[in-house]
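Worked example 2:
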Amino acid sequence: PVIDSSNVSPRNWLDLAAIIRDNYARYDGFVVLHGTDTMSYTASALSFMLENLAKPVVFTGSQIPIGVLRTDGRENLITAIEIAGARCDGRPVVPEVSLYFQNRLFRANRTTKRSAEELSAFWSYNYPPLAEVGVNITYHPAQILPPAGDPTEPLRIAERLSGDVMVLKLYPGIDERILHSVLTIEGIRGVVIETFGSGNAPTSAWFLDTVAGAIERGVVVLNVTQCRGGAVSMELYETGLRLQNAGVLCGHDMTTEAAVTKLMWALGQTEDPAQVRDIFDSN
């Protein structure tokens, strides 16, 4: 059934992955039509869930509804289909999970929705486009992943995701009670902290002790930046280094969407926090 993308859940991601797996041998590529509000979350999740992927999976949608005369949906859909079917020397040109919107094709797990008004709703701040579209479609092979698997092999999918994850955005004056309440929620297994700048946070003893206590209890804590572009470098300043010493994982230049969905995927593979950390640090 059709739903608003604000209602999308990990259950929908699991169903979508299963549909692609069950039809994998029948098609050269796949186009997923999705509402824009949570498209980057779903596209990022599928990039981690589809293992041994050797065919294109292209997400797209529209800012203006498809039934409106000047909708951007028609061009997005037609071009996404062409990209999903594009082949060179008998092989797919873009054999990875991607997101096409307003003349640019991006790696799915590098995208974020940047505007509720502009037609170029999505952007990839830390990775260049895989293709740019004008009169012709110009692919950038150096940016495109080679096939993750053998096209003759079956597609494998992750069949478990953990919903025991939350995002905490830091702000000046965050209260000790709030941080403690968040990090001691019953059943919480993973927390993505959106920090300042290059991965910085308060150095107050109560802040660091609360974070370290959560990690000691088995909660996986990941550091990503609040900034749209740039990366976390926790060794750069003392404020970030103290987080690193407390056991916080570095999210480098991941988007929040990719960090959340990869953490859900990793926590779905094992109950052991040490294994989750190892999985998270792998490509």
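The chain has a mean pLDDT of 94. The first helix runs from residue 10 to 22.
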